Amino acid sequence: MQKIATFFILTLVLLASFSLPTKAQNNILFSLQRHTYIEGDRSISIGLRNAESTPYLVQASLARLDESSGVKQLNNEETVPFIITPPLHKLEVGTYYDWRVMFSGNSQLLPKDRESVYLAKYLLIPPSQKEAAPNVDLNVMRSLVFKIYYRPKSLASLEIKDMEDKLSFRRDGELLIVKNNSPLYLVFDKVSIGKTVVDEKELFKPLPPFAEQTFNLPKNTPIDSNVEWNLLDEYSFSLEKQNSKLN
Predict the structure, then answer these.
(1) In this predicted model, what pLDDT tens digit does every residue of 143-173 receive, in sequence order?
(2) How far is CA 224 from each of CA 118, 214, 227, 228, 247, rounded to the nearest angstrom?
């Protein structure tokens, strides 16, 4: 009888892509530091440590981020101006490995007044695990997704904490609309109106430079003229709580 290979893919999207070691389900460890490539740099690195008892074949690739959802990639034919190497690497038990992300595009074609964002995707493929059914190989694959920010050299010295006064807020029914008037991508840690807290999944959505982002509010969010919020800094720490007027 022919064997049936069954595959499950579990995805963890690290949309802030932030320095603290953390783990993605079980014991695959990584850094939460923001991965920012400054124009002119040779490369940046994104590493994983395998603290599990199972080796993994890691397939690395790049994509574009769907900013409207904050969790999906864009399926288009536009070329990502980076390469990641190696595309395949066996991450043995107890080992750490750094993948290099190198700029391969034309910087003249990218915006000079703001950041651009891309995704680095790691598919962790384990050895086949035979379950009770002798003719089925069960493979549970995990996918880690990190943001990569391209920053023009003229913006190299900017820090996220200095962008807090660049946000403006308005409400339209059950929607919170936030305008980012800064040149950097920003990410919320928490947002609340009154005692109602915006769902964490909504906060996966980034705040694109010089653009608006829309967040769905929980049902029955009270009418209030203020919104409280925190941004995440370059190390995934929450900045001080801010209070802003809702227009």
Answers:
(1) 899 999 999 999 999 999 999 999 999 999 9
(2) 36, 18, 8, 11, 10
Instruction: Output the DSSP codes for 93-104.
Output: TT-EEEEEEEE-
Q: The pTM is what?
A: 0.86
What CA–CA distance (Å, rounded) separates 19 from 185?
18
C-alpha distance from residue 24 to each of 45, 71, 78, 204, 230 (Å): 18, 16, 29, 16, 24
Q: How far apart are CA 110 and CA 165, in angstroms?
A: 26
Q: Per-residue pLDDT tens for 189-244?
A: 999 999 999 999 999 999 999 999 999 999 999 998 899 999 999 999 999 999 99
DSSP H helical ranges for 85-197:
none
